[in-house]
Structure formats: structure tokens, C-alpha cells
Design goal:
Length: 697
């Protein structure tokens, strides 16, 4: 077919050793491997399905629609650590989007590690033009393109002489050698074996030819042999190791890869000593595990998914990671994650289910017979059902709860503590191989650990956030001729709670006190101290600003806290149109004058010491008096709004003032959101933000 010809030509024109085509699935955001040229299909099996949202070079090439080049394994580990965990091989990779009349997917090209770490302009042009040719073929294909269940092997046809011309002489030569000689095609099937190799492997030549070695020779069905074979395929460099043929015969095996396949030499090693290149690698699979379950491709896939799970923090993170990466990896279409709560299973996340089905499943008791989830969680034993008939035999009422046709129920158990249950489901019957079952059982344990951490984190975060919200003012007072709006944003993920606060205190019909402050730290202690500071300010509000701060400082000194507090207190006199300010080391407020040419100024306030500083029991907080123009906007904020790593604080405040000048006529709520968006766009937030805007009418 034309696509095979173009893919074959791409490998030869680019000088790559192998290539693959990923196509976007029609009904889900997943990239599916559909064709492989130049290496065995089973070598790439663990990466047959990749989520578009995954953190890796393939997904990035599709999402960003640009060529991604990874020249060395070190670059992969630095740029894409999750992907590197599942690809521990030395090679160079290029990922080019296939963009024609639509975005079809991506072309992947593989070079051995001796390729220079960077692409030349000519090579880049070859890759881009090859991707364009493939996209044109896809554009011209009649009807909708169907993605096959398994990727197709495209034969590589390198130029060369007819092997039949020298085949008889070569066979005669190899049969005379005392060493065993085998040849494998690019798919891993044995295409030649001499008598010595057949004898050492314990099989006849007829039993070996045309078969995969791990199928024809049971003791070769071991993850070690697969890993060495995979390393030779990817690196295109010789690999040597020592293996044990049961019960006690040691063999030296050397693999020599090439563009058309792999040659292998086998020789006896009576002493069982390792070859100079590698130590003895024989590994005994775990008791009860099939050799297939321990395949290194699946192991690398598990490592990749474990790395992604280790980076989750919240329950939502875990749910999204399972939905975006684990579902595509195993070809599942549905997912339900439940948490054990007072003897019931509460659904905390789902994908691919009708909301009505989720409602029926939510809150079921652990001893229900409607679903195997409760039994799996109580016993700690996972359950797999390949089709509705199998499910109906065990749980007659279960299959009617959804339209799914195959299920994997994975109990989430941590140290004998029942965390919940993860259910993966399929729209069609699905056979769970021994490999699938083994990897899913291991994955269930990893999901359980991540979910246990996430549930604890969310509980602590909700508690801390609730405490902080309770300490902040529920509503701000209504004051004639003064419009007000406020916002509080907690710090970015991973920080529990902070001590930023704001307040507006009504003093009379024509006077008010505006307060903003920042307690050092991001924890419960900071939030609790914030509440005490607010109480102290309220107790003395109405006196001169400097006296309010001095008395609040006395309170903090009596509390003997080791936390410091910055604070800005402003007495607003609307009748006299005057501001009286005092600062305890807080960033300067901004005042926008709405005259014919609007201008925003950072008010110069002589600062006093931070509240709670040792040896400052008699601290002095100078008073600053300034006019308050009509319709002016006063902005009070904490440093989280303006502090940007690598940027001078003065420049950040100037940028905020410019934004306030530009948008100051907007309603205050809209203006608040605009200032917060500016902060979010210009730096990654690691601190809380409190913002208080006031406009004199």
C-alpha cells in the first residue's frame, strides 16, 4: 500500500534505523501506533497507545504541532523525565506531526546513539518533508481511516544484492562452525539456525525456524533475554551476556544487530563466568508470575506510570492521571474510582460513564452484590471479567448498571488499610492476559499509595483553607461614597495556607479604615496569628494609624511569637477627602488619579519596623497624610501580587501601576480579576495574594 512505501522510503531517505506512525483516535484523545518499519512490532508494544495529554515528546509534537528532537538519553531524562523512565535506551528520536487537511498524528524516527546530538538543517528538512508526504497519503485515503487493533509491521527493503546468490555457500560455512549461529528478522522471528545452535537450545531446526525464540524455547521466555534483545534493536550495537540453560548449562550469547535483522552467536561457557561485557543476568520470575507478566516492556511501562503517579498531589491529580495515561495504556474506555467511607464506596472520580449510571453506583455499601467492587476491596483480591456473561455468572445484577462489556476491579489497599477501589472498563469484551493482570495488580498498589496521599492532602488543605476563610471577613461593610472589592488567592499547589489578610472597618458615615497585611509563613500558625492581628487592629481602629500599628505590635510581642507581620493601615476621611497612612514594612499602595490624563502613583509612605520584631516594643510608625481625589482608585495588595523571581520589585510595582492606569475605569470586581490575571500570566505563583480596591465616589 502507498503508506507502507512512503514509510519504507522515509527510513532510507532519513538514514534512520526505524520509524513508526501514530494516528489520533477518532473518539478519544489518544495516539495509537498503527505501523512500524525497521524494528519488531512487539518491541514498541508498551507504547502502543499514548495519551495526547501525556508529558512526553510524542504528545508534545502533536499538541504543539512542531518537530521535537531528542538527540541523547540525557536530553530525554532532562526534558521528559517521565518518558525517560520507560525508555532506558541509548538512541536519538525525532517526532514530527502529520498535518495535512487535518492533524492526523505523528511520525516517529529512531537513530542509533552514534547519531550526532543535534540535527542538521538538511536532516530536519528530510524529516519535515517525509511527514508531509505521509500526511498527503493520509489525506488522499478514501473513506474514514480505521485504526487497527495491533500495529502493522512494514517490511524494510534496503538496497543490496540477492541473498540467494551466496546463500548456499554461507549455509555450508556456518554448518561447519562449532559455535551456534542464528539469524532473526526485524520482527524477531528466527530465519536461520545452524545445527550447533539447535543443539545448544535443545530444539530441532524445524521447531525453531519461523518462530520467536521465546515461544520456541521455554527457558528463553525470560525478561532478561527480552531486555537484551530490545537493547540491541534500539541501540544497533552488539550485546553480549551469559545465560543459564536449565538445569546447569551456561551459554554465552552475543547479539549483532543490523538494518535487516539480528545475528546471534551461542557458545558454551563451562564455568558459568560472565562475559567481559556484562555480568550474569539470569533472573528468576516471582513465584506464581508468568514469564509474560515480567516482560521488560511492561516493566518499563509500569516505571513510566509510577513516575507520573509519584508527581500527583491532589485527588483530582490522581484521577486525571489515571484517566489520561493509564486508560489509554490499557485500551480501556471507562474508569470509576471510589473511596471507602463509613462502610460505603463514594465515587470521587469517573470517566466514560453516563452520569445516571454513576449516581446509581455512588454510595453502595461494601457488602453489596450489585458490583464486585466491595468484595474486591474487602478481600484485597482484584477481579477481572472478560465479558458480560462472565460478570453475570458471578454478579447477576452488575452488568445492567452500565453498558460496559469487560471490567478490571483493582482494590486500593495501603498497609491493610482499605482506601478504595479503581475500576477500569471496556466498551467491548476484552481478554486480560497474564501480562495485563500482573501489571494492573502492581498498578493498583501504586494508585492506592497515590490516592492515600492525595486524600490526606485534600483533607488537610480543606481544613486549613476553611480556617483561613473563617478568619477573613465574610463581607465588607457598606460605606457611603466608597466602593470596594477584595480578593484572596491561596498560594500555588503544595502550600497549605498562608497569613495574608485584608479588612475594611467602618468608623463613621464618612470615615473608614482599610487594612492589608502579610504574616510570615504558610501554615496553620500563620493563619492563626493573622486572626489575632486582625482582632488587635479592630480593637484600636479609629485612633491614629501609627498608634494602631504600635499597639498591634505590643500585642504580638506579648504573644511571644517568632513570626513577623507586614501591615499597612489607612484612615480614609471621605468628608475631608484625605488619607492618613502608616506602614509596618508593607509594599506601598497605589493611587490612581482619574484626572484628564489618568495616572497611577505608588504612594511614598515612610515605613516602620515589621510587627512582632524583637526589641521593637517601642516601635515608631510615622504618619503620612495625602489628599484623596474624587473618583480615585486606591489599591492595597500583598507582595504575592508583585514579586516575580528574577525581576526587580520596583519594576513589578510599576507594571501593576500601568495596568491600573489602563483599566481603572472598569467596575472594581472586573478590575480585581484583571490584576490577578496579570499576576498569574507573568509568574508562577508561590505566595498568597490579598488585594483590596477602593474607589471614592
Amino acid at each position: 500500500m502507498p503508506l507502507d512505501q512512503v514509510l519504507n522510503g522515509t527510513v532510507q531517505s532519513t538514514g534512520a534505523l526505524a520509524a513508526g506512525i501514530y494516528l489520533l483516535a477518532v473518539d478519544e484523545p489518544v495516539l495509537c501506533l498503527t505501523a512500524v518499519c525497521g524494528m519488531p512490532v512487539n518491541t514498541a508494544a508498551p507504547w502502543r497507545r499514548v495519551a495526547v495529554s501525556a508529558a512526553g515528546p510524542l504528545s508534545e509534537a502533536v499538541r504543539e504541532n512542531h518537530l521535537v528532537w531528542v538527540g541523547r538519553q540525557e536530553d530525554m531524562a532532562r526534558l521528559y523525565p517521565n518518558a525517560a523512565a520507560g525508555l532506558p535506551y541509548q538512541f536519538a528520536l525525532a517526532f514530527a506531526p502529520l498535518h495535512g487537511v487535518r492533524l492526523w498524528g505523528a511520525l516517529v524516527l529512531v537513530w542509533p546513539k552514534d547519531h550526532p546530538p543535534s540535527l542538521t538543517r538538511r536532516e530536519r528538512g528530510h524529516i519535515v518533508s517525509s511527514a508531509s508526504r505521509i500526511a498527503r497519503v493520509l489525506d488522499q485515503a478514501p473513506g474514514p481511516r480505521k485504526i487497527p487493533e495491533q500495529p502493522r509491521a512494514v517490511p524494510l527493503s534496503p538496497p543490496g544484492s540477492d541473498p540467494a546468490q551466496t546463500g548456499l555457500a554461507a549455509d555450508d560455512l556456518l554448518q561447519r562452525l562449532p559455535a551456534g549461529a542464528l539469524s532473526f528478522d526485524l520482527q524477531g522471528r528466527i530465519t536461520y539456525v545452524n545445527d550447533a545452535a539447535a543443539r545448544m537450545l535443545g530444539r530441532t531446526a524445524e521447531g525453531l525456524l519461523g518462530n520467536f525464540p521465546w515461544q520456541a524455547v521455554p527457558w528463553l521466555d525470560d525478561p532478561v533475554h527480552e531486555d537484551h534483545y530490545r537493547t540491541a534493536v534500539f541501540s544497533r550495537e552488539p550485546v553480549a551476556y551469559t545465560a543459564l540453560r536449565p538445569p546447569d548449562e551456561w551459554l554465552d550469547i552475543r547479539l549483532y544487530p543490523g538494518d535487516s535483522g539480528i545475528s546471534a552467536l551461542i557458545s558454551p561457557n563451562p564455568g558459568g563466568q560472565p562475559t567481559a561485557e556484562t555480568p550474569p543476568p539470569h533472573i528468576t520470575p516471582p513465584l506464581g508470575a508468568s514469564p509474560e507478566a515480567a516482560g521488560t516492556g511492561r516493566i518499563h511501562q509500569l516505571i513510566h506510570l509510577a513516575t507520573a503517579l509519584s508527581q500527583t498531589v491532589t485527588v483530582a491529580d490522581v484521577i486525571n492521571m489515571v484517566a489520561d495515561q493509564i486508560l489509554p495504556a490499557f485500551g480501556a474506555q471507562g474508569m470509576v474510582i471510589s473511596a471507602a467511607d463509613a462502610g460505603r464506596l463514594r465515587i470521587i472520580g469517573h470517566r466514560g460513564y453516563d452520569p445516571r449510571s454513576v449516581t446509581r453506583l455512588d454510595g453502595l455499601p461494601l457488602d453489596t452484590d450489585l458490583t464486585p467492587a466491595g468484595q474486591a476491596l474487602r478481600s484485597g483480591v482484584p477481579a477481572f471479567f472478560a465479558d458480560p456473561a462472565e460478570m453475570t455468572r458471578a454478579y447477576p445484577r452488575a452488568s445492567v448498571l452500565s453498558e460496559k462489556h469487560a471490567w478490571a476491579f483493582l482494590p486500593l489497599v495501603v498497609s491493610d488499610r482499605r482506601v478504595g477501589c479503581c475500576v477500569l472498563s471496556y466498551d467491548h469484551p476484552h481478554i486480560f492476559s497474564a501480562s495485563d493482570r500482573a501489571i494492573l495488580v502492581s498498578l493498583g498498589g501504586l494508585i492506592a499509595q497515590a490516592m492515600d496521599r492525595a486524600l490526606l492532602y485534600d483533607a488537610k488543605h480543606d481544613l486549613a483553607h476553611g480556617l483561613q476563610q473563617a478568619l477573613l471577613p465574610m463581607t465588607l461593610p457598606t460605606i457611603r461614597n466608597l466602593a470596594v472589592a477584595a480578593r484572596y488567592l491561596p498560594a500555588a499547589r503544595g502550600v497549605d495556607v498562608g497569613g495574608d489578610f485584608y479588612d475594611l472597618i467602618r468608623l463613621s458615615d464618612t470615615a473608614a479604615a482599610a487594612v492589608i497585611g502579610d504574616v510570615q509563613g504558610h501554615n496553620i500558625n500563620a493563619a492563626a496569628l493573622m486572626g489575632q492581628v486582625r482582632t488587635a487592629v479592630h480593637a484600636t481602629a479609629g485612633t491614629l494609624p501609627g498608634e494602631v500599628l504600635a499597639r498591634t505590635n505590643h500585642v504580638l510581642m506579648d504573644l511571644e511569637t517568632d513570626l513577623f507581620v507586614s501591615c499597612l493601615y489607612i484612615h480614609i476621611d471621605l468628608a475631608e477627602r484625605r488619607l492618613q497612612l502608616a506602614s509596618a514594612g508593607h509594599p506601598p499602595p497605589l493611587l490612581r488619579d482619574p484626572s484628564a490624563t489618568p495616572q497611577t502613583t505608588a504612594l511614598e509612605v515612610e515605613p516602620g519596623p515589621l510587627l512582632g520584631v524583637t526589641l521593637c516594643t517601642e516601635a515608631d510608625y510615622p504618619l503620612t497624610t495625602l489628599p484623596l481625589p474624587e473618583r480615585s482608585v486606591l489599591a492595597l495588595y500583598t507582595d504575592g501580587l508583585v514579586e516575580t523571581p528574577g525581576t526587580d520589585l520596583t519594576d513589578s510595582i510599576a507594571a501593576l501601576a500601568h495596568l491600573l492606569t489602563k483599566n481603572g475605569n472598569r467596575p472594581l470586581d472586573d478590575l480585581c480579576d484583571s490584576l490577578l490575571r496579570h499576576a498569574g500570566l507573568h509568574h508562577a505563583r508561590t505566595d498568597d495574594i490579598a488585594l483590596l480596591l477602593l474607589r471614592s465616589r
